[in-house]
Every structure is written in C-alpha cells, then in structure tokens.
Amino acid sequence: MLRTFFRTEAGSTSALLIATVLALLWANSPWADTYEAFWHTPMGLSFGTAEFSLDLRHWVNDGLMTLFFFVIGLEISYEVRLGQLRDRRLIAVPAVAAFGGMLVPAGVYLLLNAGGPGAAGWGVPIATDTAFVLGVLAVVGARCPDPLRAFLLTLAIVDDVLAILIIALFYTAELSVPALLTAALLLAAIVTLRWLKIWRAPAYIVLGFGLWVATLESGIHPTLVGIALGVLVFVYAPSDQKLLLAGEAVHEFTNEPSARAAREATLRVRHAVSVNERLQLRLHPWSSYVIVPVFALANAGVRLDGETLRAALTSPVSWGIAAGLLIGKFAGIALGTWLPLRLKWGILPGNLVWGQLFGGAAVSGIGFTVALFIVDLAFPDPAIRAEAKIGILAGSLLAAALGWVIFRMAWDRGGVCAPPEAEPDEELPELLSVPVGPRDHVRGRIDAPITIVEYGDFECPYCGRLHPVLARLLANNPDVRLVFRHFPLRTIHPRAASAAIVAEAAGDRGRFWEMHDVLYDNQRALTDADLERYAARLGVEPWEDVPRHAARIALDEASGRDSGARGTPTLFLNGVRYQGPLDEDAIGRAIAELRPSPQPS
User: Fold this and answer.
1) Burial grade of 107 (CB within 10 A; 0-12, 13-18, 19 or more)
2) Which alpha helices (H) appear in 114-239, and where do they start and end?
3) Which of 552, 558, 460, 469 is nearest to 503 (CA)?
4) Nearest-angstrom CA–CA distance, 442 and 454
5) In the sheet that 570-573 helps form, which strands lie side by side, from edge to edge?
6) I need a surface site. Which of 177, 308, 560, 583 has the fewest CB within 10 A?
7) What's the burial of 125, exposed, middle or buried (CB within 10 Å: 0-12/13-18/19+)?
C-alpha cells in the first residue's frame, strides 16, 4: 500500500506544479481580473424556495477538499489497523517529530507577528504538503531510501490530523447549535449503519452529503467531516475463508466460463478486499491528479508585481511564514526526532541515519495545500493574504533547495555504508576467510598475481563511486584481477538484494559483468520494473531460479561476515583486508606494494 501511495503522490507532483504555475501566470497576465472574478462565480442547488449556493472557490475549498481529506482519513484508518502505524514503536518517533514540526514553526511565526494584524496566521507554516515532499524525494532518488519515505508518510499523516484539529478548533468563527446537532445526528446514523454492517453506497452518499452541509452551516470547517468519514470506513485483512471462496470462484470460472461464473468470481474477489482499500484505489488518483491541482489553481494565484513584492519583503507575515517553513520545520522535526530516540520511546524504520533524517526534515518545510487552505481562513484582508501566499512560495522553494543540498552532501561524503549493528570498536579479522575459487565472478586475467576482492552492494553510493576507480585500475594494471562478491545491506538498501539476484541471473548467461556495470551506471533506478528492463536488454530472465541465486548470495554474505566485512565497499588485496582511502592513488599504491621488488642485476 505504501508503494502505491508513493507512486501516486510523487507522480501527481507534476500536475500540482503545473496548476500552481498556471495560477501564477493567470493572476499576473493581462487578464488578471478574470482570475478572482472566475473563482467568485456563484454556483448552487435549489429546490423550490430552498437554495444552497457557494462560489466556485468555496466549492473547491469546502467541497472538493473534503474529498481530499476523506482519502487522508482512509489512509489513516488503513495504516493504523494494517499498515505502518500498527507498530506503536514506529509511530512514536514520527508522531513526536510531527508535533515538533508544528509547534516550532508556529512559535517562529509568532516571534515576528504576535500582537500584530497577522497574528492569526500562526497555523499557516505548520503543515507539510505530502505531494510536493514525495515529489522532491522522487527527484532525490536513491539518496532517499524507502524507509525514509515511510517515516515521512507517517509524519505527514500525523501532521494532517493535527492540522485538521487546529482548523476545527482555532479557525472556526462562530457555531450554529441547531446545525451542529443535525450534523451529530447524521454522523450517529452513519455509525449505526456501519455497526449494523449495512453497506449500501447510496445511503452513505446521501447521509454524507447531508452531514457535509450541516457541518458547513454549523461554522466548523467541513473538511473535518472528510477525515471522520474516512476513518469510519471499514478496513480488514483478507480472511482465509474469503480468499478460499474467491479462489474457488475464479477456478470455477476458469473451468466453465460463463456470465454467471464471471459475476460470482468478481464479487468474491472484490469482497476479499476491504472497502477502505477499494476506495483508496479509486479515489487516490482523483485526489492527487484532479482535486489538489484544482485547489492549487483556485488558490495559488497571487499578484507578483513590484508593489506586492515590496510589501512582502517588509511584511512580518511573509517573513514569519517563510522562516517557519524553512527554519521552524527543520528544527522542530529534528528535535522531535531526537527526543523520543534519546528517551527510547520508539525506533526508526529501516535503520535510518541522521543525514537522511535531516534531509527529510528540510523538505518537510514544503508547505502548500493546507498552508494555502489556512491562509483563506486566517486572513480576510486580500493584501495580507497575498503576502502570506508569497511567504508560502518562498519558504517552500527554500526548504526544497535546503533538502536537496543536505541529501547531496550526505550522499557525496566519502566513506562506507554500514548497518547499525556494526560495532566501531569490534576487532575484525584481517584475512579473507574463503579463498577465490571457480564459483567467483572474476574480471581480468585469471592468472593475474594480484587479486582485489570487493564485497559490494549495488545500491550503496560508495560502491557506485568506487566502480569507475576499480575500472581504471584494472585498465592500467594488467597484472590485477577483480573479484566481486555480494554483500547487500538489506536494512539500509532495500533494492540491493533484488539487484544482486538479477546480476546472478545474468551470470547464468555469461553476462554478469555487463549487468554489474549496468546496475552501477543506473544506481538510482533499481525498482523491479527497472531491473526487468535491464534484464530484457541483455536477454536475461531476471527471476529465473531465484532460490539458487539467493543461496549463492547468502554464501557471499557469510564469507564477508567471516572475513570482517561490516559495510560496503570492503576490499581485500591478495587476501588481506584493505583499510586505506578508497581513491585511485591510494589503492594504486597498495597494489604497487604487492609487486615484488626488482632484483639488482
């Protein structure tokens, strides 16, 4: 479920970015007056003398965005019951980080705006835009592992819940008690239907629409309804009985195809999966590719003429929002991550390291969707609203740039990838435990007197940087051969093991080194689809005989551990562990020392 979410959110970033650019171009074009005029066009429903009408912007902000938060509610419900949030140890750290990532930005904003006309905008810099964040992480690529994406998704879910609560508690102008009671009764009716296990979509749609109207009239922002209804949608893991019935129905259709058997198989398969997951599959693309871009088109248009920019440059609102997103988010999330780890309240997924977490904390300062949403609620003055939007754009751009720089610095630092179980003070063996044999992958002369054995990981950035260094050394030293052994760091690099299996499959066709080079040349694209594409290019069946290849890789890993390898790359020169710098000159000097000294004539 997480991979589907990542793909959809990251892919929708382009649509969101295009919509934002179009809104800015429209608001700054010769037809700028039509921007506000269009979004203030009234549209409504009438029945006899009864009428319900909103302008287009409110239909987007109060209506479509309710569906957006409904999808978030579905995700929360799924993750709490079956997904990432089920493990309380994994929730604690991102939850506290999300709280810090809201508290500190609000404090930074209020330092500049407390007591002023912009004080109500403290909620603007608190929320993270998940779509933009995951889009930036997609650009970052292999520098950001999947466990960090899972951590940031958990953080974003908690962030969204807290943001909705803040909207409901602090950005509600006045309450209508009759409408609030009506909303409570309608919500109770929906809960009753759920308790009675009555799953009739029309009933839920009618009651849900009535609940949305009643909540809107009550003064509470109706997006809270979206979250509540999403959380209430039933979610369950497929039971053995339902899977068995589905399998039998499909088997019956396969043996005797008919319309009746097809209908029965469809129903059985559908009922094996919870309503929550089916709704997510249907609604998530609409939410990411339509609703959020339309929201951006309706709200991101701000005049960027000289007068507006001058006002923003001297506005504490603009500076407070930009500083809150750039500095407040980074400091709040970093502190909120360190504190529960220090107090041992929880653990991190996938053994993340601080360089990755700092990069994630920085890009979490990209605030857009919910930030624009709160701007509309916090500032009735159009001038202050424009200054706030400029602050959002500036702070988000700076946060994205800061995150990119941190990820690049963390990636480009020299060193070795090592899992957290590696003990820095451990006394490690110095000699290669398993001599080079016929099963090894050898590049260079078989009888070369000098052998470099590399324990490597196809996803490790340091192995990727060492790859061309070793290639040049082999080209310049014909008396050197290279042996590659697999040592995938599974907890840090989740795609490394699959890449190793595909390399072994290529080895069955005598093309190991070709695949080895392809994998290192495309190190940031190692998904299963990427690996299958590389395999097809070389005429290799990637997943043929996986158990045998996995066993072969396990032997390499065992020999590496017995030889003292605790990270990648680990090199052995003629059977002795090399401990010098991983640059061409240093390794070249070590190779030269292995050659016999010339005898005097």
Assistant:
1) middle
2) 130-140, 146-170, 177-195, 201-218, 223-232
3) 552
4) 11
5) 441-443, 480-486, 450-456, 570-573, 576-577
6) 177
7) buried
- Decide if pLDDT at 24 tops 60: yes
Average pLDDT over residues 334-353: 80
Which amino acid makes up residue 186? L
Q: Which of 300, 303, 292, 376 is nearest to 31 (CA)?
A: 303
Structure tokens at 195: 């308790």
Planar angle of CA 167, 43, 301, nearest 5 degrees: 55
Please give the Cα distance from 247 to 320 (Å, whole number).
58
Instruction: Tell me which amino acid residue 133 is.
Output: V
Cα gap 270→238, rounded to integer Å = 10
Of the candidates 595, 564, 570, the residue with the CA atom closest to the CA atom of residue 466: 570
Q: How many CA atoms lie within 13 A of 76 on its CB side?
A: 23
Give residue for tokens 């339902």.
242
* 556/269 Cα distance (integer angstroms): 42
Strands 450-456 and 570-573: antiparallel
- DSSP letter for each residue of 266-281: HHHHHHHS-HHHHHHH
- Digit-coded pLDDT (tens) for 195-220: 887 777 778 788 888 888 888 777 77
- Residues comprising the chain, all counted: 601
CA gap 330, 328 in Å, rounded: 6
In DSSP terms, which residues pair with 593 in a beta bridge?
A: none
Mean pLDDT of 21-25: 88
Residue-wise pLDDT tens digits, 452-464: 999 999 988 889 8
Share of residues in the chain with pLDDT > 70 (%): 87
Q: Is the pLDDT of residue 432 over 90?
A: yes
DSSP string for residues in 423-478: -TT-----B-SS---TTSEEES-TT-SEEEEEEE-TT-HHHHHHHHHHHHHHHH-T
Tell me the per-residue pLDDT of 238-286, one tens digit each, with 9 for 90 and over.
Answer: 666 777 777 777 777 777 788 888 888 887 877 777 777 777 778 878 8
C-alpha–C-alpha distance, residues 128 and 348, integer Å: 20
Classify residue 301 by its DSSP letter: -
* Cβ atoms of 480 and 448 closer than 8 Å: yes
| Per-residue b or e along 225-240, where b marks 16 or more CB atoms closer than 10 Å to that residue's CB | bbbbbbbbbebeeeee
Dihedral in degrees, nearest 10, Cα atoms 99, 105, 110, 112: 170
DSSP code of residue 212: H
User: CA 73, CA 160: separation in Å to the nearest integer?
Assistant: 9
Q: What is the residue type of 363?
A: V
What is residue 298's predicted lDDT score, i.e. its pLDDT? Answer: 84
Could you tell me the pLDDT band of residue 103, with boundaries at 50, 70 and 90? very high
Neighbours of 179 (CB within 10 A): 17
